[in-house]
Amino acid sequence: MRMTKTPALFLISALPFAVQAANTEFSYGGYIKFDAAYSEYKDGDMAAAGLGRDFYVPSTIPTGAANGTESFDMHAKSSRFNLKAVTTLDNGEKLTSFIEMDFLGSAQGDERITNGYSPRLRHAFFSYNNLTVGQTWSTFMNVGALPETVDFVGVSEGTVFMRQPLVRYTMGNLQLALENPETTLNGSAAGNVTDDNTVPDVVARYNIKAGDHNFSVAALGRQLRTQNTTTGNSKDATGFGVNVAGMLQLGRNDLKFSVAHGQLGRYVGLSAAADAVATTVEINNKIKISGDIEATDVTAAFVAYRHFWTPQLRSTIAYSMLDADYGEKNTGLTEKSNSARINLMYSPSKEITYGVEYSHAKREMDSSLDASNNVVAGLDGSMNRLHFTARYTF
C-alpha cells in the first residue's frame, strides 16, 4: 500500500504546478563567488565579522587610533541565486516575475565551525505591461554604469546604490516611480534611522541611447522627517537630487561614470553620510539641540575606464569620491571619502572569471564637540586592500 500511495500523492501534489507550468516559462541563474582579501587599516581596527570586511563600505574605515591593524578574510557570501518566471495570462499578455537572494549582511553565521549564513532578499518584483511592482534597483540608479570590480561594489562612495520597494511606470525612455522612504539622522538627535516618513520618495528618470553609448538623467524628490515619540511633535525637511550616469563605448573598451548631487544621503556612498542632522542653538554659552533638522548636501562621483588586453583579459582603473556638507558644524559624521582601485580580470570562458584588485581608500570625519563643548578636530583613517575573487556564473 505504501508504494502505491506515494506515487499517487506525488502526482496529486504536482498537478497544480503542472497546470501553472503549462503557461509559465521558468528560468534560474546566479553565480558562486569566492572572495579572499588582505586588508591593512592605518588608523584602528575594523570590527570582526563587520560588513566592511566582506566588501568596501566607506563608513566602516577605522579612524583616529594610534596603531593600525591587518586582517585576512575569505568568504562566499556574495554567491547568489535567482528565479525568473514569464507567464502568459488568459488575455495573451505576458507577466514577468523575478526573485533573487544572496548571503551578504547576514547576522547568523560565524567563522568558527560551519560559516553558515542566512539568505537575504535582493529582488522580488513583477512587471506587467508598463508597470513594475516590488523590490528592485531604485529608479534613481543606473545599474549599467557600474564598473567591473573585484569588490562587490567597488566605487562605493561615488555611486548611487539602492534596492528598495517601489512602484514604477515606464513610458519608452521615461520612468516615473514612487519608492520607499527613509531618513537617517545623526545619533545626537533621534537615533540613526527614524522611519517616520509619511510620503514616498518620487523619482523621474530618462534614458538616452546614442549608438553604442548609454546615458541616464534622474531626479529625486524626498521628505526627510523625524518625530518625537514622547511629545508627538515632528520635524521635516525637503530633499532634492540629480544623478547623471552612463557608459561611453570606446571600441572594445569602455568608460563608465556617475555624478550625483543634492540632498541624497542614503542614496549614495552606502549611506556613508546622514540624510539630515539635528540643528543646534547656543543658550547661555551652551550648545543645545533645537529639534529642527537640516538636510545634508552631498556630492558623489566616480569614473572608471576598462581596457581589454585580449578578449579574455582586461583591467579596470577607477576613482570614486564623496563630499558631505552638513550645514551644522561639529557633527562628528563622515565628511569626505575617496578611493582608487585597479584590477586584472581573466575569463577563460564566459562562465568563469578570476580577478585580483588593489584598492586604497580614505575617510575623513567632521569635527565634533567634547563633553565640555570644546571643538575636537575631525579624525581620519585609510585602508589598503588586496582582493582576489573567483566566480562561476550559471
Topology (elements, then pairings):
Layout: H1 2-21, E1 24-41, E2 69-75, E3 80-88, E4 94-102, E5 120-128, E6 131-137, E7 163-171, E8 174-179, E9 201-210, E10 213-227, E11 234-250, E12 253-262, E13 276-283, E14 286-295, E15 297-308, E16 313-325, E17 334-349, E18 352-365, E19 368-369, E20 375-376, E21 380-393
Antiparallel strand pairs: 1-2, 1-3, 1-21, 3-4, 4-5, 5-6, 6-7, 7-8, 8-9, 9-10, 10-11, 11-12, 12-15, 13-14, 15-16, 16-17, 17-18, 18-21, 19-20
- The number of E-state strands comes to 21
| Biggest beta sheet attributes | 16 strands, antiparallel, barrel
What name does the CATH topology carry?
Porin
Strand fraction equals: over 45%
Tally of contiguous helical segments? 1
| CATH superfamily caption | Porin
Give short descriptive properties of this protein.
Porin, mainly beta, 16-stranded antiparallel beta barrel, 55% strand, disordered N terminus, globular, 394 residues, single chain, two-stranded antiparallel ribbon
